[in-house]
Structure prediction request, 281 residues.
Amino acid sequence: MSEKTKHAGVMGWPVDHSRSPALHSFWLHAHGIDGDYVRLPVEPANLETALRVLPSRGFAGCNLTVPHKEAAMEIVDHVSDEGRRIGAVNTVFVQPDGRLHATNTDAYGFITNLRAGAPNTDFRKAPALVLGAGGAARAVCVALQDAGVPEIRLANRTLERAAYLARTLGKSIRAVRWEDRAEIEAQLDNVGLLVNTTTLGMKNQPALEIDLARLPASAVVNDIVYAPLETELLKNARAHGLACVDGLGMLLYQAQFGFEGWFGVKPEVTAALRDHVLKAG
Ligand code: ATR
Prediction:
């Protein structure tokens, strides 16, 4: 390490669980870059100070994770249009003059992973059903709108959160009631894409139980949960012969943009990277 060593990291509280250090370290090593990527445990009360000292500590920028993604928007000097639409930022770039620019790369990560996993599907042809209305769902909806999906049906346990997304993101989104499982299943008719953004199906969480019988045979099912990689939803979808996309790629692709900005090389998402990050978990 020298004065020229470029630093980046992930700021969160807690931040122990993050797989980003394994991911970025793999790319740094693969490209022989003089840099590192570290965990930055930062309490919410210290977020502003921690962000403001990045330039003087030789940091090219950082990722932000829970609980800092919204609060950082009020601190940094510039937020991209994408970050504003999503209402949260996950990547910060230190500018040559020390100013902090932030963006959100989750929508890019989501759509790039989806296109890589289902390369022959034209998502402009049919409505999508998105389950969940948290921060991840917001990035997914923005990505789907930009990809030209004609209609997004958004089902969430707390209907008001889905209605809020529909109000703030525009007309192509329609909130759907969650308690009535039959109604959700009815929404599967003529859908080209089903995405789970809820925490259901994650390790130590209940499974997502949904009857997929009404999904067209051409539909793609994407679970953004990646621990475990093969969720009950994906097993169920495979049993119906549907095309499946798992959630790990969203994490890997969203990281490309930050790495390129900090270290000057666009890294690739490969099978070796997937294996490495899975083992790190
Ligand atoms: P993130 O920012 O990662 O999307 P989040 O904002 O905590 O995380 O959102 C979690 C999502 O999972 C929400 O849509 C949540 O539903 P509510 O808005 O009603 O809280 C959904 N979720 C979590 N546990 C759930 C459960 N047991 N049943 C149904 N939905 C659940």
About this structure: The chain has two domains: 6-104+254-280, 107-246. The CA atoms of residues 12 and 65 lie 5 Å apart.
